[in-house]
Description:
The protein is of the alpha+beta class. It has helices at about 1-15, 25-40, 45-50, 110-125, 135-140; strands spanning about 15-20, 60-65, 70-85, 90-95, 100, 130-135, 150-155, 165, 180. The protein has one domain: Gcn5-related N-acetyltransferase (GNAT) (Aminopeptidase, 3-Layer(aba) Sandwich). Strands 1, 2, 3, 4, 5, 6, 7, 8 and 9 form a nine-stranded mixed beta sheet that branches. About 30% of the residues are buried.
Amino acid sequence: MTDVIGEIRALFAAPSFVIETESPRDVAVRENLLDRAMGENRRKKSSEKIRRGRLPAEGLALVARDENGLVVGTVRLWHIDAGVSAGGNGVPALLLGPLAVDPRAEGKGIGAALMRAAIKAAEKRGHGAILLVGDPEYYERFGFSAAKAQHLVMPGPFERRRFLGLELKCDWLTGAAGVIVPTGARIRAVKLRRAA
């Protein structure tokens, strides 16, 4: 009888969401979710300027879907060079963000699950480091620290204490100093033909 009770508890403790790779049909839903979760000013952030006009890193755009298949969370990672100085090259890295959960689905562990999945996927793909701008109180539990980003700067206003790094490979960011610049593939404009 104890085994049956344990199985029932495990069933109810199981998450009511799954993490998957983002699909093209998720784009509009993701954008609406980001607007609800982050507000109208999200497009004015320095991180957003780095991402604008770029594609996320291959295989590193993830969504969380609820039991009905609806997108309730999102995270994406972007190719950057960390620490580009005058006349120099930076260290290849990833910029994480935005991470967002639908306000109606908060408190279910969706954000943490997306973070763990994103970090694991980046490691599997051989990336050396992830940078982000976010609350240290939240991201430190995943291994992020301000010390890893202390010699790096965003190309625009940012709060120093919220600029964090995580090395996926030992000492990857050692010696990196300077500005973060985007390096990912650009979104190609689609030309539409007019009907004759």
